[in-house]
């Protein structure tokens, strides 16, 4: 039985539609958001969902003819851009990467999802920030639209702030996700089931 209720949510002027949790608010009503992004945040917590339309990452100088290998490199590139290339090696742990089927898209459109955690890196001379998360979990889904030369990223950010979660519930190495990550996995699964492109012209405009 799902713990959350969802509602169809139009994105980018209705060009995309996806089911999002009813307790998430549109950040663009509070502050400016880039034209290529839609950002929603949990009204009762700290989790955010970001849909980002980006230029397709090429395989660069890679000579690999294996599309899976090329897509895996693209996923890594997007993750590094999200967290910072320098910080990725030191602060990010990827726990799981899987191929993903987006129900309302053609089966020949590849998609992949990874689950990762990023720890807060305190730089030399920097004071500990009040309320800084112990770590942030990331569920990153990459949808690769080759014809449109576009990558769509759906990122669910789940900050874990001391006192706001049960530390004993989480051991990702042992498969224990805890409540907050479990909720985010449910959000991701609903997004995979409901994500729909209503206007393909969107990708020529952004």
UniProtKB/TrEMBL annotation:
Keyword field: Protein transport, Transport
Domain of life: Eukaryota
Pfam families from the UniProt entry: Mog1
Gene Ontology MF annotations: guanyl-nucleotide exchange factor activity; small GTPase binding
Record's signal peptide: none
A Gene Ontology term for the protein's cellular component: nucleus
Any one of the GO BP annotations: protein import into nucleus
Family: Belongs to the MOG1 family.
PANTHER family: RAN GUANINE NUCLEOTIDE RELEASE FACTOR
Designated name of the protein: Ran guanine nucleotide release factor
Highest classification ranks of the organism: Eukaryota, Fungi, Dikarya, Ascomycota, Pezizomycotina
């Amino acid at each position: 039985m799902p713990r959350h209720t969802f509602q169809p949510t139009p994105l980018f002027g209705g060009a995309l539609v996806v089911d999002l949790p009813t307790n998430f608010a549109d950040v663009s009503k509070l502050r400016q958001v880039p034209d290529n992004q839609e950002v929603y945040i949990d009204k009762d917590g700290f989790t955010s969902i970001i849909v980002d339309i980006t230029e397709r990452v090429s395989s660069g100088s890679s000579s690999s003819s294996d599309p899976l290998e090329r897509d895996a490199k693209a996923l890594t590139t997007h993750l590094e851009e999200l967290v910072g290339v320098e910080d990725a090696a030191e602060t990010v742990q990827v726990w799981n990467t899987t191929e993903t089927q987006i129900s309302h898209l053609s089966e020949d459109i590849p998609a992949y999802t990874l689950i990762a955690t990023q720890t807060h890196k305190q730089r030399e001379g920097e004071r500990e920030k009040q309320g800084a998360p112990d770590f942030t979990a990331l569920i990153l889904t990459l949808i690769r639209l080759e014809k449109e030369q576009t990558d769509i990223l759906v990122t669910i950010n789940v900050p874990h702030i001391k006192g706001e979660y049960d530390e004993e519930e989480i051991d990702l190495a042992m498969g224990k996700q805890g409540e907050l990550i479990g909720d985010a996995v449910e959000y991701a699964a609903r997004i995979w089931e409901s994500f729909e492109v209503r206007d393909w012209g969107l990708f020529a405009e952004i």
